[in-house]
Structures are given as structure tokens and as C-alpha cells.
Amino acid sequence: MVAIATGVPADPTEAENPLTAGLERLPVGPTTLVIFGATGDLARRKLLPALYNLAHDGALPQRFHLIGVSRKEKAHEDYRAECEEAIRRFSRRAPDADVLKGLLENVKYVPGTFDNESVYAKLGELLDGFEKKAGEPLNRAFYLSTSPSFFPTIVEALGSSKLAHHEHAEVRVIIEKPFGTTLQEARELNRRVLSIFDETQVFRIDHYLGKETVQNMMAFRFANGMFEPLWNRNYIDSVQITAAEDLGVGTRAGYYDSAGALRDLIQNHMLQLLCHVAMEPPVSFTAEEVRNEKVKVLQSIPQPTPAEIPEMAVRAQYAAGHAGGEDVPGYLQEEGVPEDSTTETYAALRLEVDNWRWAGVPFYLRTGKRLARKITEIAVTLKPVPHLAFSQDGSLGVRPNQLVLTLQPNEGVSLRLGAKIPGTRMIIRPVNMEFLYGTAFLSQSPEAYERLITDAMRGDATLFTRNDEVEAQWRICDPIVKYWRGAKAGPLPQYPAGSQGPQEAAGLLRDSDQWRAI
Ligand code: BG6
After folding, report:
1. Cβ-contact 316, 497 below 8 angstroms
2. pLDDT reading at 339 higher than 90
3. Can 269 be counted among the known catalytic residues?
4. What is the rounded CA–CA span in Å between residue 188 and residue 77?
5. How far is the CA of 260 from the centre of ligand 1 (A)?
6. Which of 7, 116, 173, 397 has the maximal Cβ count within 10 Å?
7. How far is the CA of 23 from the centre of ligand 1 (A)?
8. Atom 5 in ligand 1: residue holding the nearest Cα
9. Counting atoms of ligand 1 from 1, which one is nearest the CA of 408?
10. Ligand 1 and 376: CB distance under 6 A
11. Which residue lies with its CA nearest to atom 9 of ligand 1?
């Protein structure tokens, strides 16, 4: 921990990490990135600022072009001005004029609907033109940042316009979430995507995988020898994963009301976090090895039956309350939400990973909008010590060890230990041993999309969801979605905005467990 805490190798001769030796990162070849949905929220808030920051860090290939595709008619200059505005507003760094200019010079815009053949013809011309000018083939990455209903249309149009393959360069397609809204839809989408592209060309986004702290879970588990011997059912009592948000549905009611908390966060981000906790050490950190191990975890989670669902899943919706120092409306009063909506804004599950390592250990997952604060964390609670030799008073403060990985906002790792309170008596109290990213590394973490865009451009799929993985995630969530939408689901519990969530969530826990405070 000391070496990590200062960000400096403890012993310079040990600086090379045996886990990554020989796995040097692939180079980013010259690339043209095409963003479908180029004027949408995601492009403005995340993708364009990520591209700017990559340009700032010199991490874009020397030959890099960006083409935005969207419905509205507009000139290249107007789209460039919009890009600049979005970067100025949402970038984590104040933009440097020269870097920004350099990036924007290589931006073009193609207007049109995604089912319009002429859009793809125009794209083809631009792509060929860039190559001619460069005098070399350029890789192509098509980023689908549109409403999911357009994914099949775009993929098939890329196929029919012969843009999905290139004889001398790599062609990749990056697909945003949600990847389907049911298992059946995900399978159908996979079928259609894979009828045009090879799986090695496909990069399904789960932006949590691009977060530094999620990647650090691998480092934490597999670069430290001390945790792995304890990392099993013999020592671990329960795992609790929380992704709480203080904000409400905001301006996204249209999408959110058809999704709900389970599909929005648990089906993807939270199951990925669970996989990171539960997976076996991969033989190497290659895309296939890592994803094979994650798929095995997902396959070890039994598919919930309708009879089990009321016992292992709780949903609820926020009512009016008090959050962030002000009175806020309930979900049904939010703009764009149907007044009789039964969409859940909170979901909690108790899952089991039925394999040799984890059988019998409950994995609790919970997420919700308008909870008391924003926090994403994983708490691993160890079993209590087998015998307490201290006097009764002395033992009162003894708690099981708990390891908490905080993914956001105060990124770090904390380990709860029992310690003697200074004084003449033997009285124990829990204390925390902490590692905080902010103080250990003194550098700003890149945004998840920065890492993901470069990885996709270099063809490294480790941090992207494979076809069987996304289907395995739906296999777990599908029956719960169906049950909640069905007649047997019963009344939808409510929780006040700004609270800890619905009381009903306590019903998922064993008597010895409690939810951590949000
Ligand atoms: C998105 C969800 O995938 O993740 C949003 O659609 C949610 O509803 C967001 O707010 C949370 O991401 P982060 O990075 O802020 O934890």
C-alpha cells in the first residue's frame, strides 16, 4: 500500500508489472471516427469533450478525422461551432486554443436520416477523399450514439453500402447502450450486427468499464497477493454493490420511463461490477480471457423464477421529497413522465453466484435515482472472527472486517479494522485504513470515454461487452423485468426523494446484514 499511496514504485527494480509485461498496448492507427447522432446529448457531453482531451494529451492518431452524422441540415462550419461550444462547456479541462483548432480543422458534417442511402454514399466519398489526401488507407470507426431503435438500420446500411469492410484498413463499430431491452431483442440485435460485422469489429459500450476505479478493481485483486486467499465463501460473508444517484430523471424521461432502474443500471453497469468482484483471475489480460471469466460468473447466477422474484428483487419509485437543499417533485410529476407510470426508479436484488468460490454468499445490488447522495461503491464484508476473548464491554465495538471500494465520488479503498481505543481498558472500535486516489496520485483521472474511444480505435475489446456476455446479463434481468411489468407484481412501493430508498429493500437482507448508509 505504501508504494501505491505515493504513486512511486517501492523498489525501482520491481517497476515492471509481471501481469502486463508482454501485453504492450496496440498502437492507434490513423482513423476516421464517424459519430451517428452527432448532435445528441451523449456526443455533446461526453464524446466530443473526450476527443478534445485525447487531442490535448497527444493520444489521437496523427491522422484523425471526425465526421458527425445527424438529421438536421447544417454546414460543416456550423457543426464545428457546435463542437467547440460543447467542448468548452463540458470538457474536464479548459480548452487550449491551438489544440482545439487542430481538432476542429478535421471535422466534417453529413446531414440526413439514418435510413437514407445518400448519407452513406456521402460518407463513402468523404472517407475515400481523406484516404486519397493521406495517400494511405485509414481505419474507420463508426460510433452509434443514436436512439437504439436506429442501431439495426445503421448497421445494415453500412453493410449494404460496402462501408463495413475495407481491404487495407480496420473497420470497427462502437455501439452504445442499451443493447436491446430484453434478452430476445439483444439476441436479435446481435444476430443482425454479426450478419454484417465480425465480432472482433464490434465494441459494445458499458462506460463503467472505462472508469479508472473499475479497472483498478482488477489491479487491486490481481496485483496484490494478500486479498486473493480470502476472496471466497470461506472468508467473505456478503457483497453489497451500490450505485446511488441524487439526481432525478432530469430531461431523459422519454428514455428512462421505458427503461427503469433495472435495465438502466443493473443489467449492464452493476452486473459488470459484480463480475469484477467474482471473476476468477484470467490467465492474461487479453479481451478474450477477461471476458471468458466474466461470462462464467454471469452463467453461475441462476436465472430467477417467478416464484423467487418477490423474495430477491425490490423495486420502487421516488415520491416528492427534499434533495440537495430544496423541495423536489416525485417521479410522476417530472416533465415527460406519464402520470400513471409504474416504472421503477429504484431496484435492489439479492443474487447468488452458484460456483465453488461463491456458493452461499449473497451479492446485494441496489441502485436508484433521487437517493440521499451520489455514491458508487462495493462493500465486501468478511465473516466475523470465530471467538471473542475480550470482556463483554471490550467486544461491543468489534465488527467484521469490511473492505469498501469507492468508485465515485471519493475514489479509493478503505479497510475496516478493529483497533483498541487508547487507554487503560481493552475496548475495541472500528477504524478505517484508507487509500484515496486523489491524494495518492495527484493527477486527474481521464473520463471513461477517453479510454474507451482509444481502445476501440486500437482494436482492444477488453473493456467492451462481448455478444454472449450481454446476452448472459439479459438472461438474469429479463424474468424480473417481465414479472414487474405483469399482473402479479403488486403495488409499487414509493420512497421520498433524498432518502435511503424504500423500506421494503430491507426485506432482501439476512437478519445479520444491513444496507450501508447512502
Ligand atoms: C447511465 C444511465 O448509463 O449511467 C444513467 O443511463 C446514469 O441513468 C448513468 O445516470 C450513471 O453514470 P455515472 O458515470 O454518472 O455513474
Report:
1. no
2. yes
3. yes
4. 39
5. 12
6. 173
7. 31
8. 264
9. 16
10. yes
11. 265
Strand, helix or coil for residue 22: coil
Asked if 152 contacts 189 with a C-beta cutoff of 8 angstroms, the reply is: yes
Q: What pLDDT, in 10s, does the model give residues 264-278? A: 999 999 999 999 999
What average pLDDT score do residues 441-452 get?
89
pLDDT of residue 24: 53
Percent of the chain with pLDDT over 70: 95
Question: Would you give the distance in Å from CA 506 to the centre of its chain?
Answer: 26
Nearest ligand 1 atom to alpha carbon 255: 6
Q: How far is the CA of 294 from the centre of ligand 1 (A)?
A: 21
- Contact present, 287 and 460 (Cβ < 8 Å): yes
Instruction: Label residue 415 exposed, middle or buried (CB < 10 Å: 0-12, 13-18, 19+).
Output: middle
| 202-204 and 171-175 beta bridge pairing | parallel
The pTM for the full model equals 0.92
Do residues 164 and 157 touch, judged by C-beta distance below 8 A? Answer: no
Query: What is the Cβ-side half-sphere exposure of residue 470, based on CA atoms within 13 angstroms?
Result: 29
Nearest CA residue ID for atom 14, ligand 1? 208
Confirm or reject: Cβ of 264 under 6 Å from ligand 1.
yes
471 lines ligand 1 (CB under 6 A): no
Ligand 1 centroid–CA 417 distance in Å is 32
d(CA 518, CA 509) in angstroms, rounded, equals 16
**Could you say which of 269, 276, 322, 387 is catalytic?**
269
Asked if 345 and 254 touch (Cβ cutoff 8 Å), the reply is: no
Evaluate if residue 313 carries a pLDDT over 60.
yes
Q: How far apart are CA 95 and CA 54, in angstroms?
A: 12
* pLDDT, tens only, 500-514: 999 999 999 999 999
